[in-house]
Each structure stands twice: as structure tokens, then as C-alpha cells.
Amino acid sequence: ARREVQTVAERLRRTEQQARSHQKELEEVAAEAKAARSRDEHLTQLRNQQQVDRAEANEARARADAARARQEAADLRDRLRVEAERRRCMADHSAMAKAA
Q1: What are the CA-CA distances from residue 1 to residues 5, 12, 13, 46 (Å)?
Q2: What does residue 23 show for φ and ψ, rounded to 5 degrees?
Q3: pTM for this structure?
Q4: pLDDT tens digit string along 13-53?
């Protein structure tokens, strides 16, 4: 009976040791999972920030393109106005020359 009690006690000790070992492994796996989730969240934040940065850059480019187009239109209007004024002056001179 004493031998049987020792055998049972030894099995119980080994089982408890295995349980502690498994518990430690579970804690390590849980810590790794938590770190992986944290990294995933960080990467998601970075990706989201990159998308925001790209959108802002695209918007800035579009504003610059629109400003350039407005300036080109204003320049073209100025050139057309100058050309129309020049033609009007030439017509006036021509009319004066014919009248004289």
C-alpha cells in the first residue's frame, strides 16, 4: 500500500509539473498573440495613415492643377484682349487713312 501511495504521489507530482509547464506555455502563446494583435493594429494604423497621406497629396495636386488651369485661362484672356485691342487700333487707323 505504501508503494502504491508513493506511485500515486509521484504521478500526481508529474501531472502538476506538466500542468505548470502547460500553463506557462499557454501564457507565452497568449503574450505572443497579444503582441501580434498589437503589431497588426499598428500596421493597420500605418496603412490608414498612408491612405490619408495619399488622398491629401492627390487633393493638393488637384488644387495645384486647378490653380495652374485658372492662371492659363487668365493669361489666354489677357492675350486675346491685347490682340482684340491691337486689331481695333489697326481698323481705326485703316478707317482714318481711308477718310483722309
Answers
A1: 6, 16, 18, 67
A2: -60, -45
A3: 0.54
A4: 999 999 999 999 999 999 999 999 999 999 999 999 999 99
